[in-house]
């Protein structure tokens, strides 16, 4: 199982490839996993936002986890697998977390409960219950999608729950990052790709970034230069990546991401599941590999 010490580097929230009929495309998924793992990334996250989790069934998640584990085993890779199990229902989240543990996941990613707008005490209990399952829990805070922003004081409390090993921070709130690091909190991964370098300078242990699916070596080089104390070089490389990152998210993800992966021949189709739509021709023309 994943430890706090392993929460560092570049984690990739993976896409879920579909056929033209919008069924799972496991051969494409396995090829994609192989390419990502061979690049040198530090971890994979299945069934996150980038994986179109709202439209993927739990049966399909199980197929994806099994396929990923088989692929990693075939190339003798020890890259850890994290599985998104968070919902806005604590009982459902606990049940999914137990199933992920039974599948052999190394950790789970649990998002702050969304839509029903619970109190902070309810949010704390949600994470406490998820962590009680016994598999390491990575907290995912993304208020732009959940409609809930956890206070700094409550996040400190959540980070002290036994079994919680870190935070994916997509808040765009550098004060949260700074305060958690100051308090010696558990590892934090940047969840907003455009803030990657800024968060590294404030103590983030790395990033969990969708854009790193496209030529992940470039993101690894930024991270490796930074930890080698070659910060000027890291910043230069990051500024070269920034226009690409911003363009990638100009339209809802992972539309453009899938288009580029299909263009690279890593997956067979850029198909998404409704209500998500393909990337526009204007955006495709704007981003050239």
TrEMBL record:
Positions bearing the site annotation: Part of a proton relay during catalysis: 49, 115
InterPro entries in the record: Aldolase_TIM, DapA, DapA-like, Schiff_base-form_aldolases_CS
Residue positions binding pyruvate: 50, 208
Annotated active site: 140 (proton donor/acceptor), 168 (schiff-base intermediate with substrate)
Keyword Lyase: yes
UniProt cross-references to SUPFAM superfamilies, sorted A to Z: Aldolase
Localization terms from the record: Cytoplasm
E.C. no: 4.3.3.7
Pfam families: DHDPS
Catalysed reaction equations from the record: L-aspartate 4-semialdehyde + pyruvate = (2S,4S)-4-hydroxy-2,3,4,5-tetrahydrodipicolinate + H2O + H(+)
Pathway: Amino-acid biosynthesis; L-lysine biosynthesis via DAP pathway; (S)-tetrahydrodipicolinate from L-aspartate: step 3/4
Family of this protein: Belongs to the DapA family.
Assembly: Homotetramer; dimer of dimers.
The protein's role, per its UniProt record: Catalyzes the condensation of (S)-aspartate-beta-semialdehyde [(S)-ASA] and pyruvate to 4-hydroxy-tetrahydrodipicolinate (HTPA).
Designated name of the protein: 4-hydroxy-tetrahydrodipicolinate synthase
Species of provenance: Paenibacillus polysaccharolyticus
